[in-house]
Write a structure and sequence with these properties.
Two copies of one chain form a homodimer. Chain A is of the alpha+beta class. In chain A, 35% of the residues lie in helices and 25% in strands.
Chain lengths: 339, 339
């Protein structure tokens, strides 16, 4: 019979996770005390600021266990945190993982979850240095805190966009939203859903490598990731900067896969692109004269970076349609509490 | 009608919490970016190691909402994290708070929760620099990450205890366990439960001030807090150090309140003292010649520090009873998953 968390208990699970991390995880010479004490301890590097972020994923709210298996859940949860550090221009260093688990959770699933975390952390030689296990009511929650570093004074905020700045976006926003709809459609039809867009939903890519390189140029005036969807996070950036934005709809990158999926689902592709989507792309603003420099830096990271509009002094966001009409763009970012 | 989280939405709640923190919280000149960006940013102080810990509280598991109101819940959750930093000899600096909330949570309660966090952080001039809000399934979870600092090389681990070392403990372990039983008894009898031991359960005190002072002496060979109960955490310390311990039962401080509560409840006071109890006292080991020095340092922090036994080369824990018999002491620390 498959082993459950209740069979091995909290200490048993801690030991199991500890050996997995020792075997498959990275170690940092800066960490003097890791898992297994009251707190972890590390020596910060001189000349660096530290970045710290946390993000939770709750079962049935941020992931549907029937659709996303444990390894992918782990990748996805860690990716959202790496994306936050990368969106400041920072490099991930140390993670702490707090899990709320039902007592009947399978030990194998928890181990797969940690392998998912490491899959995303190892390329940065980042490590898991602590955490907490507790029993949850119904369903699992995963809360990750991630520490990163950035050269002193080089962190890029949301609040630096200025009127006249160009607005750029990496990759193809909306892929995850289209993938989720394909997944739900396939489930309704009783089919399995192997599709690049479905993968974009299950295991989205962060753009931290590009974020680090773009921040290092010193040309980005503001940067944020699109974890609340392109318009939601553009809205946060505009609000923090006290500006507005005008986006030219036809300039927003719309890849063939999104067009094909939209056609198959009978939807407008811009419902995905300009809606809520768990993509973890980056929105960047800069002086228009710096656009080409930033594009070549991003291109060196194999990440497309497209100019899609400009920052306006007038607050509020607008989209310019192909016929020249200018329509308001709602910052309809995802709200966890509104009905 | 009392405002609910669903009435003001996620962004509304973030703004509400933001103004509360601005009004009632501390600000650090080391923090360059706080709440409202992808990540917070701070400059570490030269010559210091950073400590980081996280701890969760789950409704109906770690607190019964009928018994512990929001302000006290906030104090309690933050205290457990401050205790972890203090048990390494560190000073709390920055907190991140991740909340899982049902949509019908009252805004007033969330604000009270944050006032509870600040009540514990403000004495250290520590601040909340980030966090996350999400909707939870049933009931609330509170997950706090706390960053602290300690002079380089001065962090006290669990793993340094040596055979022959004295074992010391602060305060009066077991008070919280006795308080919880009084609270449950009063609830069964339909009475309200105002009692110092009930307060010890609802809003336990951490010993971080004493922990910082004791670590600074350099005399403590190992230190940990008693969040899993005295025998549970003594067990963790012994395991990490590869040693055992012999505790003299009559030396363990047992205050009059615990004796009186035990008599009223028809229980053995040592069931509280040597059982699971959410007290956040400190267990410290040191060379027997350093006991008096540590006691005067602790006394200067107004914290009693009592020598209760010694570390043994032979593994396993034992209690010496008044009649001279030596009985095994189970490390029956709290296990979240065992039935």
């Amino acid at each position: 019979m498959a082993e459950r968390v209740s069979d091995i208990g909290e200490l048993g699970l801690i030991h199991r996770i500890g050996s997995l991390l020792e075997r498959d995880g990275c170690r940092s010479p800066q960490v003097s005390i890791g898992i297994g004490d009251d707190a972890a301890s590390f020596l910060p590097r001189a000349g660096c600021e530290l970045l710290i972020t946390c993000d939770s994923m709750v079962e049935n709210r941020h992931f549907l266990p029937a659709f996303i298996e444990s390894f992918d859940r782990g990748r996805r949860a860690m990716t959202s945190n790496i994306s936050d550090i990368g969106a400041m221009g920072g490099t991930p260093l140390y993670g702490l993982v707090s899990l709320g688990l039902p007592a009947d959770a399978l030990v194998l699933d928890i181990e797969a979850l940690y392998r998912g975390f490491l899959h995303e952390l190892n390329p940065f030689h980042a490590s898991i240095v602590g955490g907490n296990l507790t029993r949850s009511g119904d369903g699992m929650f995963i809360d990750i805190t991630l520490v990163g570093e950035v050269a002193q004074g080089k962190a890029v905020r949301r609040s630096g966009a200025r009127p006249g700045d160009a607005v750029l976006v990496t990759g193809f926003p909306g892929r995850a939203a289209a993938g989720l709809q394909l997944l739900l459609q396939a489930a309704r039809d009783g089919r399995s859903a192997g599709h690049p867009l479905v993968d974009a939903y299950k295991t989205p890519s962060h753009r931290a490598r590009a974020g680090i390189a773009l921040a290092a140029t010193g040309y980005a005036t503001a940067m944020t990731d699109t974890s609340d969807g392109f318009p939601g996070d553009l809205g946060h950036l505009c609000e923090a900067s006290g500006v507005g934005a005008e986006i030219v709809r036809e300039r927003i990158p719309c890849d063939g896969a999104i067009r094909a999926a939209a056609a198959a689902l009978g939807r407008d592709p811009y419902a995905f692109i300009l809606g809520e989507s768990d993509d973890y792309e980056l929105i960047i603003t800069c002086d228009p004269r710096r656009v080409q420099s930033l594009q070549s830096v991003s291109s060196a990271c194999a990440v497309p970076l497209t100019e899609v509009g400009k920052i306006t002094a007038e607050q509020g966001m607008h989209v310019v349609l192909p016929d020249g009409r200018k329509v308001p763009l709602g910052a309809a970012g995802f709200d966890h509490f509104r009905p």
